[in-house]
UniProtKB/TrEMBL annotation, chain A:
GO terms for biological process: cytochrome complex assembly. It is found in: Membrane. InterPro entries: Cyt_c_assembly, Cyt_c_biogenesis_CcmC, Cyt_c_biogenesis_CcsA/CcmC. The keyword Transmembrane applies. This is Unannotated protein. The keyword Transmembrane helix applies. It comes from freshwater metagenome. Keywords: Cytochrome c-type biogenesis, Membrane, Transmembrane, Transmembrane helix. Its main location: membrane. The chain crosses the membrane at residues 20-42, 62-82, 94-116, 128-149, 161-178, 198-219. It is a multi-pass membrane protein. Pfam families: Cytochrom_C_asm. Residues 23-182 form the Cytochrome c assembly protein domain.
Automatic annotation (TrEMBL), chain B:
GO terms for cellular component: plasma membrane. This is Unannotated protein. It is found in: Membrane. Keywords: Membrane, Transmembrane, Transmembrane helix. The chain crosses the membrane at residues 28-49.
């Protein structure tokens, strides 16, 4: 990502793709193809959950990617607020990452709900992990709404950066909720080495391919946000030019 | 005649002429989403404080731990004992054990999910004193609390699995 480009000087919109992002997109697609192959066909059934275990290969990577995305939003927001690195590009990375994080968090909630119906016998229950995850989800929806409240780009960047730094504190709360309280949700599996062989490999493929997809989405989205800012800035430039012609 | 400067410009608002294809965002939509998110967040906090912190009592805590009182509507956790599941019409009877303490359960709803012997479950209901002086749990809902262990389905391991199942009610 080019973090030094200016938003207002470019006379015409540039494409959001490059050779690197096209290669990245292809790699993400190949990874997702592998995930489908291993997750649906090559990995074995679980002894207890049978074929229901396959939701794991979507649910866990999407949850981890949501954590990563919200972490990146927090770091980018801190970089914007710090005077030595203050640049609107950090704000756009933060916004793009939050949007993709909300997408992955939504996938986590939907896949978890389906998995819960299969294993627990219920789509939803108010246990600590589920409740804190839902809270994290609406917090970042609120963050995205705060970004759209209007004002200058700098005002948007400053207020959303402050909110992002507060919101990211919820991520450890969600992750450790299974340790700190008594949830219906299971405890950690990967950290405790309770997943092996092709099951672990399929999960690994899910993590890699979702990470590639995340990077690809964030790069494109932050470039679209930069173009949106350019359009806003050009609108002002054009209005000033029209008034100069009048006088 | 001097050149006009920017300070001479008439900056009074004019009729808005679109300068780009992108439509102007409507802040009221963002405010509406923000209000909805705040409302949902408040609901989740309330649910967390009332339901999520102590989602259940372990079987060995019934009658001993605050909030796990006899006669009160609670959730209990334990492992379903081997060979304890009996269906009697609309009712399912089984025994759950945790840390060596057991309690019979009379469940009025149909068990769903992965419900089976030797699996951890969370049951909603209340502890009732029976006529013979013993206690049982009158349950109206059971949820399966699957463990963090994943193991591939393999015929070679059925014997091992059966061995584990036989001992399940002893573990708790």
């Amino acid at each position: 990502m080019n973090l030094t480009s200016s938003s207002s000087s470019s006379p015409s919109p540039s494409p959001t793709s490059t050779r690197f992002t096209r290669a990245l997109g292809v790699a993400a697609l190949v990874g997702i193809g592998w995930l489908v192959l291993f997750g649906l066909f090559l990995s074995p059934n679980d002894r207890v959950q049978k074929t229901g275990v396959r939701i794991l290969y979507i649910h866990v990577p999407s949850a981890w990617l949501a954590y990563l995305a919200f972490g990146v939003t927090g770091l980018s927001s801190a970089a914007y607020l710090w005077k030595r690195t203050r640049n609107l590009q950090w704000d756009r990375v933060a916004g793009a990452s939050a949007e993709v994080g909300v997408l992955f968090m939504g996938i986590t909630l939907v896949s978890g709900s389906l998995w819960g119906r299969i294993s627990w016998g219920q789509f939803w229950t108010w246990d600590a992990r589920l409740t804190t995850t839902a809270f994290l989800f609406v917090t970042y929806i609120g963050y995205l709404a705060v970004r759209d409240l209007g004002g200058t780009h700098q005002q948007r960047a400053k207020r959303s950066a402050v909110m992002a730094l507060l919101a990211v504190l919820e991520v450890p709360l969600v992750h450790f909720s299974v340790k700190w309280w008594r949830p219906l949700h299971q405890n950690e599996t990967v950290e405790k080495g309770k997943l092996n062989g092709l099951m672990l490999f399929s999960l690994f493929i899910g993590l890699i391919s979702f990470t590639l997809l995340y990077v690809w989405l964030v790069i494109h989205r932050q470039r679209v946000l930069a173009l949106n800012d350019q359009v806003d800035d050009r609108g002002l430039d054009l209005a000033l030019a029209a008034r100069r012609e009048e006088s | 005649m001097s050149e006009p400067t920017d300070s001479d410009l008439n900056l009074a608002p004019r009729e808005v002429v679109p300068t780009a294809a992108r439509g102007k965002k409507k802040p009221w939509f963002a405010y509406a989403v923000l209000v909805l998110a705040l409302g949902a967040g408040g609901l989740f906090v309330a649910k967390f404080l009332t339901n999520a912190i102590d989602y259940y009592c372990n079987v060995d805590e019934i009658g001993h731990k605050s909030g796990c009182d006899v006669g009160r509507n609670i959730r209990i956790q334990g492992v379903v004992d081997k060979d304890s599941i009996e269906k009697a019409g609309a009712v399912t009877n089984f025994v759950v054990t945790f840390h060596g303490e057991s309690i019979p359960v009379v469940l009025s709803s149909k068990p769903t999910g992965l419900f089976q012997e030797c699996i951890p479950v969370v049951i909603t209901g209340k502890v009732v004193d029976a006529d013979d002086g013993t206690q049982y749990f009158e349950g109206n809902e059971v949820l399966v609390k699957h463990s963090e262990n994943y193991d591939k389905e393999n015929k070679d391991r059925v014997a091992t699995a059966n061995g584990e199942a036989a001992a399940c009610s002893q573990k708790g």
